[in-house]
Amino acid sequence: MTSPIPDPLIFNCSVMLQLANSHFLQSVLYFNLFCSAVAVFCLIHTWLSICRYKLMHFNLKLLMKIHCAALLIHCVPRLFLHLFDLYAYFFASNCYEMQPGSLRCFILRFPYMFGLILSSTTTIFLMIERGFATCYSQNYEHGYKPTGIVIGCCQIFCSLILMASVFHEYDFNAPHYYCSRIRERSVTATLSNRYQLEANMRNIRLLQSFTLCDLFFVFTCFTLSAPVHYYSSEMERATYHGLVEVVNFVPLYSVVMPLYLWVFRKKHRDIVTNTLQASLTTSSDHYFNVLNQQLSVREEGEKKRIRNKLRKK
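Predicted structure:
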């Protein structure tokens, strides 16, 4: 005789207690809570540093600030989400008080997912912006701010479209044991020209580092999400929700990414400073010697070309 299938619209108290007493889920929530708190301060500092940075074009700074804002939009609700869950697990008197409300899950989960999606699309729109900067490098320095604003708006609009596909089946009447994914089945030549080209070359290594860091995060996150959701039916609920939080390691990424970029910028700034100091300490006779060598090489080339013409005649 088969056991009856539990009604998904009826709250199961034993499942809620199983989640609340899971040490694995609690440890994951503590870790993400700590990373989210640290990430908020790191991202605010990074935002202010980008605003003060003078060697970036307005459009590039705008997209970088959108990325920081997306991570903040993700980390702040996640901070409160884990804080509320841990508080309920330890201080609630019964399983019904532990249950997260549908409205609370929606309010906190919507920016959680929006920040995740928005930050994941940054690399694509950075490539588009740098493509514009290269194609129109002759006068890109002095304008094209509306282009950056349009690109930023397109990034936000595309993220909202993806969000609509995630939340359009949200059921406010169904009981929630944990504010997890809404749809668990989804696996989801002139001086100006020269200046702009040099700015591209100066920023390209920084952007490469950022892109590699972001690509590693996106690839790892979505690669690990697939088996977790595929085998979710074979796991306990507490283990499944804990693994989902482990896979979505945006708070840890939000801490590592600003520190990584800060170290890279400091190293690059030290190289530029050392190069300038070396050029200032170089004797002026050195430049004249180099110029004389170049002129002598050019004169010898002209003489050789003239001798070859005379021989042909």
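Summary: Residues 13-275 form a domain with the Rhopdopsin 7-helix transmembrane proteins fold (CATH 1.20.1070.10).
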